[in-house]
Every structure is written in structure tokens, then in C-alpha cells.
Amino acid sequence: MVEPVAPAPRSGARLLLGELRPERRALAGLGLLLAVAVGLPVIAQLLLGAFVDEAGDGATATRLTRLAAVFGILLLAANALRLLVTWLSVRLAWRVGNRLRTDLCRHALALDLSWHGEHRAGEVIERVDGDIEAVTRFTSTAVLEIFGNVAVLLAVAVTALVIEWRVGVVLLATVGVAVGVLVRLRDVAVPSHDHEREVLSHLYGDLEDRLGGLEDLRANGAGGWALDRLHRHSARWWRAARRASLRGEGAYAATAVTFAVGTAATLAASALLVARGQLTLGGALVMFRFVQMVHEPLDRIGEQLNESQKAIAGVQRAARLLGTPIGLRPGARPLPDGPLSLELDDVTLEYQAGTDSGHRALVGVDLTVAPGSSLGVVGRTGSGKTSLGRLVARFWDPTAGTVRVGGVDLRDVDPTSLRSRIAVVTQEVEVLRASVRDNLTMFGTASVDDARLLAVLTDVGLDRWLADLPDGLDTHLDGAEQLSGGEAQLLAFARVLLADPGLVLLDEATSRLDPATEARLTAATRRLREGRTLVVIAHRLTTLDDVDAVAVVDDGRVVEHGHRRVLADDPDSRFARLRAAQLAASVPGAPTEVTP
């Protein structure tokens, strides 16, 4: 098996900076607008101080009116700019968040089945969507709530130093201590929020598993057990959330205390200097307004602390997912046109290769399927036939040996060519919550007109089903609820015909169907194999009556391979014994155990 390709490890900060790199111009524009939006209120407070001083010195009403008008205009302009910055930052945050989601989805889809077997669907959803939602929610307001308010604090502190350096020093010290407390306590709180998100992903994963098996749980009276698991996971989440909240709120409380002490010191210093005649009344008013301006940004920064911790934890978890090694390396060669040959050359597949718990699913398999021919693969449950199909579809790479399709090693094939030229139909068909047209074309992946869609549905025997739908191809399907099991399988066959691949793999596609529906699928299968290579992994051997050759798999090895008719007519062949055993099992009271 090819060694997993490990992406270069990235921290959460490096990941986020990398996603922000394409937004350099937008960030520069936001920074400029933010600087103006922050500077205008500071200038307005200076005008307010001048208004008070000039009023005390007997300035004319015209002069004071002008000062008041400019003061109002500056504040209105500042609010308008802050609104514009908010709108632009929200758009930027969603662009970055959607790029992150795309990267995470692409990486998760590239990971092999062993990783997905260890991570439930709910966990993956939480990582791809939940974590990135926290990042997007925070970054959409971070420009104003964090960077903007830090800029306000610095602008106020610097201006205060210019007006009266002694008061400015007190104010600057207050800002510095408060920011230091925030940064220090953030480092303490982030791991707690990271742990909370991890626990929450396990809760969602377990809940998704229980909902997926709802019918079995109800039928077997296991509802109490499912509720008990829900309570246990919820309790773990509550404890993790409480710990994270206490640490986050503790940081906010410590900042509030720091600010209260600093505010009192600033106002006391201003009052003392006014009493000594070293600061005008207007200057004291400006200092008072600066104190108010400092209070709000620190409050906002404190309020955003919890969101920042969740966002940082989310980015760190995203970086860990993107750092997960990819076992299936991408190739670059396209598969040839027309029916594709299939060759397995001394193939061995070991799950969890290199570990003590490794299990050999296939050992030394040699198989050849000529272009345009068909092969049936049979064997007992657990014999390895499904593992063989996974190799053909390249859900796994072989631990040893080579799988060639169309004469090309699958490890060298371009992924896009692989998915377009090899089609897989399993017993579990995914019917999307979308229109019939979108279900057939997979939202436009197959570019065909309606006439072609109608012709394909007729070919697989779904023309009557379509005629009964109220809106034809525009009818919205609510998942598989509007289709029987056989109709869902026929819909999957129609997708394959539209894709027109060179090799089709049917993995026990008829194992759960009644004989009448199976007959319809058999007819559709004949249509499907025209001009294509067909590999059928079957449990019911009656579905193999039309294949050219049969391979019997047992204990991970191909123990018999030959022309189907020859093997069926040989009473000593394993295939013939399997057929006889299935026919006998259909008779009430007959034994069902058989050794291939």
C-alpha cells in the first residue's frame, strides 16, 4: 500500500493567514476605512473640548454653531463608515469561511475508508461546518469588535498623551494591563473551548448513529439505552461547556476590575490637574469622554473573548484535519475511452497495514477481465469480495500488487477520470432531496438535455414511474421516500447510463429485492453492460445468469475462476455447489450451510 501523503503541518494561525492571503487588497481597504472610522470620533471629542473652552471664553454663537455642526458631521460619518466596514468584513469572513469549508470537504473526501471508519458522520459535519461557523461568526465582527476597538484604545491613549501626558500615562497603563490580562487568560481558556468542541462533535456523531438506526432501536426496545447514551454525552458536554465558560467569563471579570481601577485613577488625575489650573475644563471633559470611549471597547473585547476562543479552537481543529495524511495519492493519467479492461496482479489488501491488529482481506489475487466482458464475484459473507470491489473503485490501494484498469495502474489515474470512467452501484442508493433532474445529473455533473433523461429512464424501466409524478423531471424527491428499493436501484442505473463509464461495478445491488423487482433490474443490467465492462459482486447467484465468467472468493483468495457456463455445468465446481446450496435453501427445512 502506498504510504499516506502527509500534508505539511500547519498551525491554526498559519492556516487562517493562508486563507486570508488572497484577500490582501480587501484587508488593506478595510484597514484604511477602519483607521478613518476610528480617527473621526477622536477628532470629534477634541472639538467638543474646544467648544466648551471657547464657550467659556465668550465665543460667538456662529463659531459655536459651526463647531457643533462639525462635531455632529464627524460622528455621523464615523457611524456610516463603521456600518460599511461591518458589511465588508462580513462578506470577507464568509468568503474565507467558505474556502475553508471547501478545503476541509475536499481533504475529507480524499481520506481513505479507514479514517472515515474511525470518525462518524456527525463528527465530520461538526468539523467541516460547526467549527468553521464559529470562525466565520467571530471573524465577521472581529474587525470592529477586536481590531477596531484596539485601534480606538490606542488612538485615545496617544491623543491623551498629547493633551496631558500625565493623564495619558494613566490611561495608557490601564489599556496595557487590561489587554495583557485578556491575552494571558485567553491562552488559559482556549484549550477548554477546544475540548468543548471535541466533546460536542462526539455528541453529534453518536446522535447521528442513533437516529440512523431508529427503526432497529424501536423494534428491539433499546430506546432507553439510546436515551442513556444521549444523557451521558450531554453531561460530558455540559461539564466541558461549564469549564470553558467559567474560564472565559473569569477573563472578562478580571478585565473589568482592571478597567474600573484604571478609570478611577484617570478621572482622579484629571480632577487634580483642573484644580491646579494645569488642565482646562474642556480638556477635562475630553479626558472624561476618552474614559467613556475606552470603557466600551474594553467591554466589547471582553464580550468577544469567548467567541475568539471558540474561533481559535475551530481553526486549530481544522488545521489538524487538514494535517491528516492522505492514503490515496492523486495520479495524472486519464483512462482510455471505450470498455475498460481490469487486471489484478498478485494483489494483497491488509486493513490497518503495519499494525498488530492488521487484517488481510485479500491475499495474492490474480484476475483478468477483458474489455466489454462481464465477471461475477461470489463468496460467503466476509470472504473478501466487497474488499475486491473497493480496490476496483479505488476506495483503497492494495498493500501489495497492482490493480490496472484499461492497462493503467489505478494509483496513476487522474481522480476526475477515475470517477467518470468507473461507476459503482451498491445496495444503498443515495437519493438526494432534490428534483428528479438533479438526482439524475447530480446537479449538472452530467450535461444532458431532457430528451436524453427521458430516454434513459425508459431504458431502465422508470418511464411509468416518471409519468405518475406530478411535475415530471421537476418533481422534488424527499429522499428515498417516494421510491421503492427497486426504483431507487433503477435510478442509480440511469445515472450510470448518463455518465457512460467504461467499467461498471455492481456491489450486491439486488441483494434486498424481491424476485419481480430483481427481474426488472436484470433487464436494466443487460442494457447497462452494452459497450461496457461489468463486474457484479453478488450474494444471490441467480443474478449472474448473464455474466461471462465467475470468480469464487474464499478467505481473501480467488479459489475458482472460469467461464460461468462451464463452472455451472461442473457438479464438482465450487460455483455449482454454491448454486445448489442456494436452491436447496429456498426449500423450507433444507440446510443452508455450505463450504465453497
Describe the structure in your own words.
- By secondary structure, the protein is an alpha/beta fold.
- The chain folds into 2 domains: 12-322, ABC transporter transmembrane region fold (Up-down Bundle); 342-585, P-loop containing nucleotide triphosphate hydrolases (Rossmann fold), CATH 3.40.50.300.
- Helices cover 63% and strands 11% of the residues.
- The protein contains 18 helices and 12 strands.
- Helix 2 packs antiparallel against helix 9.
- The model is unreliable at 1-6 and 589-596 (pLDDT under 50).
Task: Give the helix/strand class.
Answer: alpha/beta
CATH-level-2 architecture of the largest domain? Up-down Bundle
**Number of β-strand runs:** 12
Number of helices: 18
Taken in chain order, the helices and strands follow as: HHHHHHHHHEEEHEEHEEHHHEHEHEEEHH
* Approximate helicity band: 55-70%
Indicate the overall shape. Answer: elongated
Give the distance, in angstroms, between the N- and C-terminal Cα atoms.
Answer: 29 Å
**Major sheet characteristics:** 6 strands, mixed
* Name of the CATH class of the largest domain: Mainly Alpha
Overall mean pLDDT:
80
Topology:
Layout: H1 12-20, H2 24-56, H3 61-110, H4 113-118, H5 121-163, H6 165-212, H7 214-219, H8 223-275, H9 281-322, E1 342-351, E2 359-369, E3 374-378, H10 385-392, E4 400-405, E5 408-409, H11 415-421, E6 422-426, E7 434-435, H12 436-441, H13 450-459, H14 463-467, E8 476-477, H15 485-499, E9 503-507, H16 515-528, E10 533-537, E11 549-554, E12 557-563, H17 564-569, H18 574-585
Helix pairs in contact: 1-9, 2-3, 2-5, 2-9, 3-5, 5-6, 5-9, 6-8, 6-9, 8-9, 13-15, 15-16
